[in-house]
Predict the 3D structure of the following.
Amino acid sequence: MNETGIIILAAGSSSRLGRPKQLLSFQNKSLIEHSIDEAVAAKLTPVIVVTGAYGESVSTYLKNKEVVIVYNDAWKKGMGSGIKAGLKQAMLLNEKLQSIIISVCDQPFVSASLFRKLTEKKKETAKGIVACSYADTIGTPVLFAHSYFDKLLQLEESEGAKSLVKMYNDDLATVAFAKGNIDIDTEEDYKNLLNHTRT
C-alpha cells in the first residue's frame, strides 16, 4: 500500500460565492472531480474527501470515484475539524501511512505531477513538511510526515494546518506551484478563471 495518502477538503459552505464551489465546472468537470482525478492519477492512497455543507450534493459526483468520503458534521467549526476527520479515517485505512497531503478543492490547477513532486521533495530533503510556494506565500497542497500526525489531530477546530507550517519552518521544504494562488471564493474569481483559460 502507498505510504502517502491525501485529504481533499470539500466541506465549506462557499458563503462568499453563494453556491457550492466544489461543483463549479472547469474544463468539463467539477472542481472536486478534478482534484480527485489528479490525486488518484498520482497513485496516492487512500484518497479521502471530507464533505460538510453540501455533503449530499458533492457525494453524488463521487459515486464512481476511487475515494473514501468522510462527512464532517463539525464543518461549521472550521478547517481544523475537517483535517482531523480526514486524518483519522486515513490512519484507519492504512496503519502504515507515513505521510499525508492536505489539499483543497478550489485550486483548479492542482495536478498529479504536483502531488508527486511533494512526495519526491520529502524523499530528497528528509523534511517533515513540504508545502507549495506561490505568489510570495506558502500553502496547500501541503505534505506532513507521520511525525506531525499527532499535532494535526490536536489542531483547534477553527485552525488550518498553516499554523504548523509557520511553527516548524526549520523542518520545511517547498515546491513551486505556478498557479497556486488561483482559487475560487467569489463569482468574480470564477469568471476570472474562465476568462484566464480562454486566453
Remarks:
- Helices lie at 31-41, 55-60, 79-93, 112-125, 149-153, 162-167, 187-198.
